Amino acid sequence: MTKMTVEFIRGLLIVWMAMALVACSSNEAKLEQSLIQIDDIARRQVDLLARHISNGRVKNALLLERYAANVAKNKPDYRDIADALALDAGVDGPIFTSLNARLDDAKNQISKVAKQGGEAAQLLLQEYESINTAASVNNYNMMLTDPINVLADMSDGKLPRVGAMAKKASISSNGAKDLGHGSQLVGNPNYGQWKQSNNGTSFWAFYGQYAFFSSMLNSRYNYGYWSNSRDYSYYHDVGRRHYSSPAQKTAQVKTEDRTRKHFRSRGKSFQSPYAKAKSSGSSATRSVLKAPSKFNSSGGGGKYSSRYGSSSKSSSGSNNSKSSSKYSSRSSKSSSRSYGGGGK
Protein backbone atom coordinates (compact mmCIF):
# COMPACT_ATOMS: atom_id res chain seq x y z
CA MET A 1 0.00 0.00 0.00
CA THR A 2 1.47 3.35 -1.03
CA LYS A 3 1.98 6.30 1.31
CA MET A 4 -0.66 8.34 -0.50
CA THR A 5 -3.16 5.46 -0.23
CA VAL A 6 -2.54 5.23 3.50
CA GLU A 7 -3.03 8.99 3.89
CA PHE A 8 -6.24 8.86 1.84
CA ILE A 9 -7.67 6.03 3.96
CA ARG A 10 -6.76 7.94 7.09
CA GLY A 11 -8.48 10.98 5.64
CA LEU A 12 -11.68 9.02 5.07
CA LEU A 13 -11.54 7.74 8.63
CA ILE A 14 -11.07 11.28 9.88
CA VAL A 15 -14.13 12.46 7.95
CA TRP A 16 -16.16 9.63 9.45
CA MET A 17 -14.93 10.44 12.94
CA ALA A 18 -15.74 14.12 12.45
CA MET A 19 -19.29 13.29 11.38
CA ALA A 20 -19.66 10.96 14.37
CA LEU A 21 -18.34 13.66 16.69
CA VAL A 22 -20.96 16.16 15.58
CA ALA A 23 -23.74 13.56 15.67
CA CYS A 24 -22.99 12.50 19.23
CA SER A 25 -21.98 15.85 20.65
CA SER A 26 -24.83 15.70 23.16
CA ASN A 27 -23.48 12.49 24.69
CA GLU A 28 -20.39 13.12 26.78
CA ALA A 29 -19.12 9.53 26.85
CA LYS A 30 -19.53 9.01 23.11
CA LEU A 31 -18.01 12.39 22.34
CA GLU A 32 -14.99 11.60 24.49
CA GLN A 33 -14.55 8.24 22.76
CA SER A 34 -14.75 9.87 19.32
CA LEU A 35 -12.13 12.43 20.32
CA ILE A 36 -9.85 9.69 21.61
CA GLN A 37 -10.18 7.88 18.27
CA ILE A 38 -9.43 11.09 16.38
CA ASP A 39 -6.39 11.63 18.59
CA ASP A 40 -5.19 8.14 17.68
CA ILE A 41 -5.55 8.86 13.96
CA ALA A 42 -3.61 12.12 14.21
CA ARG A 43 -0.96 10.44 16.36
CA ARG A 44 -0.50 7.69 13.79
CA GLN A 45 -0.05 10.33 11.09
CA VAL A 46 2.66 12.06 13.13
CA ASP A 47 4.33 8.71 13.84
CA LEU A 48 4.27 7.92 10.12
CA LEU A 49 5.94 11.25 9.39
CA ALA A 50 8.61 10.46 11.99
CA ARG A 51 9.38 7.16 10.28
CA HIS A 52 9.65 8.86 6.88
CA ILE A 53 12.02 11.45 8.33
CA SER A 54 14.16 8.85 10.09
CA ASN A 55 14.29 6.67 6.98
CA GLY A 56 15.41 9.52 4.74
CA ARG A 57 12.17 9.72 2.76
CA VAL A 58 11.57 13.44 3.18
CA LYS A 59 13.46 15.07 0.34
CA ASN A 60 13.86 18.52 1.84
CA ALA A 61 15.08 17.09 5.15
CA LEU A 62 18.02 15.57 3.28
CA LEU A 63 18.52 18.83 1.39
CA LEU A 64 18.46 20.81 4.64
CA GLU A 65 21.26 18.65 6.02
CA ARG A 66 23.33 19.17 2.88
CA TYR A 67 22.77 22.93 2.87
CA ALA A 68 23.70 23.18 6.55
CA ALA A 69 26.87 21.15 6.00
CA ASN A 70 27.80 23.32 3.02
CA VAL A 71 27.34 26.58 4.92
CA ALA A 72 29.19 25.25 7.98
CA LYS A 73 32.13 24.23 5.80
CA ASN A 74 32.36 27.34 3.65
CA LYS A 75 31.32 29.89 6.28
CA PRO A 76 32.93 28.77 9.57
CA ASP A 77 31.49 31.77 11.41
CA TYR A 78 28.02 30.43 10.61
CA ARG A 79 28.71 26.86 11.77
CA ASP A 80 26.71 27.05 15.01
CA ILE A 81 23.62 28.56 13.44
CA ALA A 82 23.84 26.15 10.49
CA ASP A 83 23.95 23.24 12.93
CA ALA A 84 20.94 24.65 14.79
CA LEU A 85 18.93 24.94 11.57
CA ALA A 86 19.94 21.40 10.60
CA LEU A 87 18.00 20.07 13.61
CA ASP A 88 14.83 20.48 11.57
CA ALA A 89 16.12 17.76 9.25
CA GLY A 90 15.35 15.24 12.01
CA VAL A 91 12.72 14.55 14.65
CA ASP A 92 14.48 16.64 17.30
CA GLY A 93 13.99 19.95 15.52
CA PRO A 94 11.42 22.52 16.65
CA ILE A 95 9.02 22.00 13.74
CA PHE A 96 8.51 18.30 14.46
CA THR A 97 8.65 18.50 18.25
CA SER A 98 5.96 21.18 18.19
CA LEU A 99 3.61 18.70 16.48
CA ASN A 100 4.13 16.21 19.30
CA ALA A 101 3.64 18.94 21.90
CA ARG A 102 0.38 20.00 20.27
CA LEU A 103 -0.82 16.39 20.18
CA ASP A 104 -0.11 15.98 23.88
CA ASP A 105 -1.86 19.25 24.69
CA ALA A 106 -4.89 18.32 22.59
CA LYS A 107 -5.13 14.92 24.26
CA ASN A 108 -5.02 16.54 27.69
CA GLN A 109 -8.04 18.65 26.70
CA ILE A 110 -10.27 15.73 25.64
CA SER A 111 -12.06 15.04 28.93
CA LYS A 112 -12.76 18.72 29.59
CA VAL A 113 -13.92 19.34 26.02
CA ALA A 114 -16.18 16.27 26.09
CA LYS A 115 -18.00 17.81 29.05
CA GLN A 116 -18.31 21.17 27.29
CA GLY A 117 -19.26 19.85 23.84
CA GLY A 118 -20.43 22.31 21.20
CA GLU A 119 -17.95 24.95 20.07
CA ALA A 120 -15.18 23.62 22.32
CA ALA A 121 -15.41 20.25 20.55
CA GLN A 122 -15.33 21.93 17.15
CA LEU A 123 -12.22 23.91 18.09
CA LEU A 124 -10.46 20.79 19.32
CA LEU A 125 -11.42 19.00 16.13
CA GLN A 126 -9.96 21.88 14.11
CA GLU A 127 -6.70 21.53 16.03
CA TYR A 128 -6.55 17.83 15.20
CA GLU A 129 -7.27 18.72 11.57
CA SER A 130 -4.36 21.15 11.58
CA ILE A 131 -1.99 18.62 13.17
CA ASN A 132 -3.00 15.92 10.70
CA THR A 133 -2.51 18.28 7.76
CA ALA A 134 0.84 19.52 9.11
CA ALA A 135 2.03 15.91 9.48
CA SER A 136 1.46 15.15 5.80
CA VAL A 137 4.84 14.31 4.28
CA ASN A 138 4.27 16.67 1.35
CA ASN A 139 3.30 19.60 3.55
CA TYR A 140 6.10 18.98 6.03
CA ASN A 141 8.53 18.76 3.12
CA MET A 142 7.49 22.26 2.05
CA MET A 143 7.60 23.61 5.62
CA LEU A 144 11.33 22.85 5.62
CA THR A 145 11.87 25.30 2.77
CA ASP A 146 12.08 28.22 5.21
CA PRO A 147 15.22 27.02 7.05
CA ILE A 148 16.57 25.75 3.72
CA ASN A 149 16.18 29.18 2.17
CA VAL A 150 17.75 30.88 5.17
CA LEU A 151 20.82 28.73 4.55
CA ALA A 152 20.64 29.45 0.82
CA ASP A 153 20.77 33.18 1.55
CA MET A 154 23.64 32.68 3.99
CA SER A 155 25.60 31.03 1.17
CA ASP A 156 25.44 34.35 -0.73
CA GLY A 157 23.41 32.74 -3.48
CA LYS A 158 25.74 29.81 -4.12
CA LEU A 159 22.98 27.48 -2.96
CA PRO A 160 19.64 27.99 -4.74
CA ARG A 161 16.44 28.69 -2.87
CA VAL A 162 13.77 25.98 -2.87
CA GLY A 163 10.08 26.63 -3.55
CA ALA A 164 10.70 30.38 -3.72
CA MET A 165 12.12 33.01 -6.04
CA ALA A 166 15.72 34.15 -5.78
CA LYS A 167 16.13 36.76 -3.05
CA LYS A 168 16.35 39.89 -5.20
CA ALA A 169 13.50 38.78 -7.46
CA SER A 170 11.30 37.95 -4.46
CA ILE A 171 11.92 41.29 -2.76
CA SER A 172 11.10 43.13 -5.97
CA SER A 173 8.02 41.06 -6.80
CA ASN A 174 6.55 41.25 -3.30
CA GLY A 175 7.35 44.90 -2.61
CA ALA A 176 9.40 43.80 0.38
CA LYS A 177 12.63 44.98 1.97
CA ASP A 178 15.85 43.08 2.61
CA LEU A 179 15.55 42.24 6.31
CA GLY A 180 18.76 40.23 6.45
CA HIS A 181 19.65 36.62 7.20
CA GLY A 182 17.01 34.65 9.04
CA SER A 183 14.15 36.95 8.10
CA GLN A 184 12.05 34.00 6.86
CA LEU A 185 11.93 32.77 10.47
CA VAL A 186 10.79 36.03 12.07
CA GLY A 187 7.25 35.60 13.40
CA ASN A 188 7.50 31.80 13.35
CA PRO A 189 6.95 30.64 16.95
CA ASN A 190 9.21 27.62 16.44
CA TYR A 191 12.22 29.96 16.41
CA GLY A 192 11.36 32.86 18.68
CA GLN A 193 8.64 35.12 20.00
CA TRP A 194 7.34 38.67 19.91
CA LYS A 195 8.14 40.56 23.11
CA GLN A 196 6.63 43.82 24.23
CA SER A 197 8.94 46.78 24.73
CA ASN A 198 8.49 49.57 27.26
CA ASN A 199 6.99 51.91 24.66
CA GLY A 200 4.19 49.47 23.81
CA THR A 201 5.62 48.10 20.57
CA SER A 202 6.68 44.49 20.00
CA PHE A 203 10.06 43.24 18.85
CA TRP A 204 11.20 39.80 17.72
CA ALA A 205 13.47 37.75 19.99
CA PHE A 206 15.00 34.56 18.63
CA TYR A 207 15.36 31.59 20.97
CA GLY A 208 18.84 30.83 22.29
CA GLN A 209 20.15 28.50 19.60
CA TYR A 210 19.07 31.00 16.93
CA ALA A 211 20.38 34.04 18.81
CA PHE A 212 23.06 34.47 16.13
CA PHE A 213 20.39 36.09 13.96
CA SER A 214 19.58 38.56 16.73
CA SER A 215 23.11 39.93 16.57
CA MET A 216 22.35 40.98 12.99
CA LEU A 217 19.05 42.66 13.82
CA ASN A 218 18.11 46.21 14.69
CA SER A 219 14.88 48.21 14.82
CA ARG A 220 13.89 46.77 11.45
CA TYR A 221 12.46 43.82 13.36
CA ASN A 222 9.96 45.67 15.45
CA TYR A 223 6.53 44.31 14.59
CA GLY A 224 5.27 47.35 12.76
CA TYR A 225 8.24 47.58 10.41
CA TRP A 226 8.34 43.82 9.82
CA SER A 227 4.61 43.78 9.11
CA ASN A 228 4.99 46.32 6.34
CA SER A 229 8.29 45.03 4.94
CA ARG A 230 8.33 41.24 5.16
CA ASP A 231 8.96 39.04 2.14
CA TYR A 232 7.49 35.62 1.35
CA SER A 233 7.95 32.71 3.72
CA TYR A 234 6.22 29.34 3.64
CA TYR A 235 5.13 29.58 7.26
CA HIS A 236 3.46 32.97 6.99
CA ASP A 237 2.00 32.68 3.50
CA VAL A 238 0.97 29.03 3.34
CA GLY A 239 1.46 26.92 6.45
CA ARG A 240 0.65 29.19 9.40
CA ARG A 241 -2.82 27.81 10.05
CA HIS A 242 -1.55 24.24 10.32
CA TYR A 243 1.85 24.82 11.93
CA SER A 244 0.59 27.02 14.78
CA SER A 245 -1.06 25.86 17.99
CA PRO A 246 -4.27 27.52 19.23
CA ALA A 247 -2.25 29.41 21.84
CA GLN A 248 0.20 30.61 19.19
CA LYS A 249 -2.66 31.81 16.99
CA THR A 250 -4.12 33.69 19.92
CA ALA A 251 -0.74 35.28 20.68
CA GLN A 252 -0.38 36.35 17.04
CA VAL A 253 -3.80 38.01 17.11
CA LYS A 254 -2.99 39.83 20.35
CA THR A 255 0.34 41.09 19.03
CA GLU A 256 -1.24 42.38 15.84
CA ASP A 257 -4.16 44.01 17.65
CA ARG A 258 -1.87 45.65 20.21
CA THR A 259 0.34 47.03 17.43
CA ARG A 260 -2.68 48.36 15.54
CA LYS A 261 -3.89 50.17 18.67
CA HIS A 262 -0.40 51.56 19.26
CA PHE A 263 -0.26 52.99 15.74
CA ARG A 264 -3.81 54.33 15.95
CA SER A 265 -3.10 56.12 19.23
CA ARG A 266 -0.35 58.02 17.44
CA GLY A 267 -2.44 58.83 14.39
CA LYS A 268 -0.53 56.41 12.18
CA SER A 269 -1.85 53.75 9.81
CA PHE A 270 -0.99 50.10 10.32
CA GLN A 271 -1.01 47.30 7.76
CA SER A 272 -1.45 43.70 8.87
CA PRO A 273 1.46 41.44 7.86
CA TYR A 274 -1.13 39.34 6.05
CA ALA A 275 -3.02 42.14 4.34
CA LYS A 276 -1.16 41.59 1.09
CA ALA A 277 -0.42 38.17 -0.39
CA LYS A 278 3.27 37.37 -0.80
CA SER A 279 4.17 35.12 -3.71
CA SER A 280 6.70 32.29 -3.73
CA GLY A 281 6.78 32.23 -7.50
CA SER A 282 6.28 28.45 -7.28
CA SER A 283 3.00 26.76 -8.22
CA ALA A 284 3.92 23.75 -6.09
CA THR A 285 3.90 25.75 -2.87
CA ARG A 286 0.15 26.22 -2.52
CA SER A 287 -1.09 23.14 -4.38
CA VAL A 288 0.52 20.79 -1.89
CA LEU A 289 -1.31 22.12 1.15
CA LYS A 290 -4.76 21.53 -0.34
CA ALA A 291 -4.42 17.75 -0.56
CA PRO A 292 -4.83 16.57 3.06
CA SER A 293 -7.67 18.84 4.22
CA LYS A 294 -9.95 16.08 5.47
CA PHE A 295 -11.62 17.45 8.60
CA ASN A 296 -13.87 20.01 6.91
CA SER A 297 -17.01 17.86 7.13
CA SER A 298 -17.13 18.80 10.79
CA GLY A 299 -18.85 21.95 9.72
CA GLY A 300 -15.57 23.58 10.67
CA GLY A 301 -14.03 26.77 9.59
CA GLY A 302 -15.28 28.44 12.70
CA LYS A 303 -13.60 31.51 14.07
CA TYR A 304 -10.10 30.32 13.27
CA SER A 305 -10.71 29.84 9.57
CA SER A 306 -12.16 33.32 9.16
CA ARG A 307 -8.84 34.78 10.19
CA TYR A 308 -6.30 32.07 9.64
CA GLY A 309 -7.88 29.79 7.04
CA SER A 310 -6.00 31.50 4.23
CA SER A 311 -2.84 32.95 5.57
CA SER A 312 -2.40 35.28 2.65
CA LYS A 313 -5.59 37.14 3.50
CA SER A 314 -5.86 40.15 5.71
CA SER A 315 -6.31 39.57 9.41
CA SER A 316 -9.10 41.57 10.97
CA GLY A 317 -11.12 41.37 14.15
CA SER A 318 -10.06 39.64 17.35
CA ASN A 319 -12.59 36.91 18.04
CA ASN A 320 -9.92 34.25 17.85
CA SER A 321 -8.46 34.98 21.23
CA LYS A 322 -11.87 34.54 22.82
CA SER A 323 -12.88 31.36 21.03
CA SER A 324 -9.56 29.59 21.38
CA SER A 325 -9.52 30.09 25.12
CA LYS A 326 -12.54 27.78 25.38
CA TYR A 327 -10.37 24.94 24.16
CA SER A 328 -6.82 25.85 25.04
CA SER A 329 -5.99 27.64 28.25
CA ARG A 330 -2.28 27.10 28.74
CA SER A 331 -0.68 26.94 32.16
CA SER A 332 2.40 28.87 33.19
CA LYS A 333 4.39 25.66 32.76
CA SER A 334 3.67 25.46 29.05
CA SER A 335 6.57 25.44 26.65
CA SER A 336 7.11 28.80 25.00
CA ARG A 337 8.83 26.93 22.19
CA SER A 338 5.67 25.04 21.31
CA TYR A 339 3.05 27.60 22.18
CA GLY A 340 4.79 30.93 21.91
CA GLY A 341 4.65 33.85 24.19
CA GLY A 342 4.16 36.37 21.48
CA GLY A 343 3.55 39.77 22.79
CA LYS A 344 3.14 38.81 26.41
Description:
By secondary structure, the protein is an all-alpha fold. It has one domain. Helix content is 58%, strand content 3%. It has 17 helices and 2 strands. The chain has helices at residues 3-23, 28-54, 59-74, 79-86, 94-116, 118-134, 137-143, 145-154, 167-173, 211-214, 223-229, 234-239, 246-265, 283-290, 302-308, 319-325, 336-339; strands at residues 192-196, 202-206. A two-stranded antiparallel sheet has the order 1-2. α2 packs antiparallel against α5 (94-116) and α5 runs antiparallel to α6 (118-134). The longest helix has 27 residues, at 28-54. It is globular and about 55 Å long.
Key features of this structure:
344 residues; mainly alpha; 17 helices
Summarize the topology.
Elements: H1 3-23, H2 28-54, H3 59-74, H4 79-86, H5 94-116, H6 118-134, H7 137-143, H8 145-154, H9 167-173, E1 192-196, E2 202-206, H10 211-214, H11 223-229, H12 234-239, H13 246-265, H14 283-290, H15 302-308, H16 319-325, H17 336-339
Antiparallel strand pairs: 1-2
Helix pairs in contact: 1-2, 2-5, 2-6, 3-4, 3-8, 5-6, 13-16
